[in-house]
Design a protein that fits this description.
By secondary structure, the protein is of the alpha/beta class. The protein folds into two domains: 163 residues, Rossmann fold; 56 residues, Orthogonal Bundle (Ribonucleotide Reductase Protein R1, domain 1). Helices cover 28% and strands 22% of the residues. The protein contains seven helices and twelve strands. The protein has a six-stranded mixed β-sheet, with helices on both faces. It is globular and about 70 Å long. The two termini are 29 Å apart. The relative contact order is 0.14.
């Protein structure tokens, strides 16, 4: 989704003559397969919600993939009406705001006009891919921004405490008549493999780790066990949760098959 092509008219049909070079590409990869999300996008909106409770590991993986692809990531936090859960989610996202990520707070079912204004403020003028697990409100957002889209919505599964999959294919929607702003809706995901990345590059794609690089005793420091590590020295500011995610991802990438 998102590839640009040169085409010509042939009778009552169009013929693709060539596919233009991509300026960006976001994808995920695990041991078994590679999943392409979209090409030629300017930014990624990772949508999470107060309910179901979001996985910080999934969020971190999506942000790492965006950073590695040099695509601007944004975080949307939906379901403002669930006050207690929303406050808890807001606190969990505070470290990401401290890293410099923009967090957009939304109440798409209860504060439609405000949510629409906040979304359009960051979406207009860009090609944006929406990512996130099922149940966060991606289809609700599509219907809010594109009247007539009729994206299917569904309730959160109480048994699984997760959303029921309603989007099964990737779809591009234009946000303006000039077709300068696009929103790409993708199916919800439960896993996000990063096997296309190298373990030794991971620290560069995590802003809270990256800001402390260059202060280690060893040039090839893994920031895990080496003495004189500038990253380990800053663990109080990085936080145990983020450092745990870094170690989990590093182990995963270091152990992948060549």
């Amino acid at each position: 989704m998102g590839d640009q092509v040169l085409w010509s008219v042939s009778g009552d049909e169009g013929v693709v003559e060539s596919v233009l070079e991509r300026r960006s590409l976001l994808y995920r990869q695990d041991e078994l397969r590679t999943k392409l999300f979209a090409a030629n996008i300017d930014q990624i909106l990772v949508l999470v919600a107060a309910d179901p409770e979001f996985s910080e590991s999934q969020l971190a993986r999506a942000l790492v993939a965006a950073e590695a692809a040099h695509i601007r990531p944004l975080i949307g936090l939906n379901k403002l009406d669930l006050a207690e859960n929303f406050q808890r989610a807001r606190q969990r996202l505070q470290p990401y705001q401290d890293m410099g990520y923009q967090v957009i707070e939304l109440g798409m079912k209860t504060s439609e006009a405000t949510a629409k204004a906040r979304l359009l403020d960051v979406l207009l003028g860009h090609q944006t891919l929406v990512l996130g697990p099922s149940g966060t409100g991606k289809s609700t957002m599509i219907n809010l921004l594109i009247p007539g889209a009729l994206a299917s919505t569904n309730e959160v599964s109480r048994a699984l405490h997760s959303g029921k999959h309603t989007t099964t294919s990737t779809t591009l929607y234009w946000l303006d008549a000039q077709r300068q702003s696009a929103l790409i809706d993708s199916p919800g995901f439960q896993s996000f493999g990063l096997h296309h990345l190298r373990a030794e590059d991971l620290s560069r794609f995590m802003p809270d780790i990256n800001r402390h690089l260059g202060h280690c005793r060893f040039y090839n420091c893994s920031h895990r066990h080496e003495p004189g590590c500038g990253v380990v020295a800053q663990l109080p500011s990085i936080g145990q949760s983020r450092y745990r995610i870094y170690n989990e991802l590093f182990d995963e990438l270091a152990s992948k098959s060549p």
